[in-house]
Amino acid sequence: MKLIIINGPNLNLLGTREPDTYGNQNFEDYFSKLQFQFRDAELSHFQSNIEGELIDELQKADNEFDGIILNAAAYTHTSIGIGDAVKAISTPVVEVHISNTFSREKFRHKSYISPNAKGVILGFGLQSYDLAISSFIKG
Ligand code: DQA
């Protein structure tokens, strides 16, 4: 099973960014653990702070992977372009958030990704990614 995690803006700062909300582990360390934990799967990871690069990566990942795990971060709440890309591709996308966006500011309650996602996992800290990977492997 070939899966890619696509992370959006500011997620390169995990570990130091707002640790009360996002924890204190950096993504590279966490990703190494995921690769070990799911060693029968082929996991890739891409991060960008740039909206168009995220759209390019979604288009590139289409048909290259069995599933896409997308945390579009702040673009989740603003980007019609990323929402359209998720709609345009045929590889299933699971939307992930580290925090429970519904327990936060109202502007985080809106997602342009969810309507076209296979499912949404949020609020479990970095474990949200584990759960998304498991959903592809077990589903
Ligand atoms: C986030 C939630 C978003 O609202 C926020 O802009 C992020 C991270 C999360 O994983 O909890 O950058 O997607």
From TrEMBL:
Catalyzes a trans-dehydration via an enolate intermediate. The active site is at Y22, H97. Homododecamer. Its EC number is 4.2.1.10. It catalyses: 3-dehydroquinate = 3-dehydroshikimate + H2O. Keywords: Amino-acid biosynthesis, Aromatic amino acid biosynthesis, Lyase. The gene is aroQ. Gene3D superfamilies: Dehydroquinase, class II. The keyword Amino-acid biosynthesis applies. Transmembrane segments: none annotated. The record marks R17 as: Transition state stabilizer. It is an enzyme of class 4 (lyase). One of its GO terms (biological process) is chorismate biosynthetic process. Substrate binds at N71, H77, D84, I98, S99, R108. Pathway: Metabolic intermediate biosynthesis; chorismate biosynthesis; chorismate from D-erythrose 4-phosphate and phosphoenolpyruvate: step 3/7. Coiled coil: none annotated. Pfam families: DHquinase_II. This is 3-dehydroquinate dehydratase. Belongs to the type-II 3-dehydroquinase family. GO terms for molecular function: 3-dehydroquinate dehydratase activity.
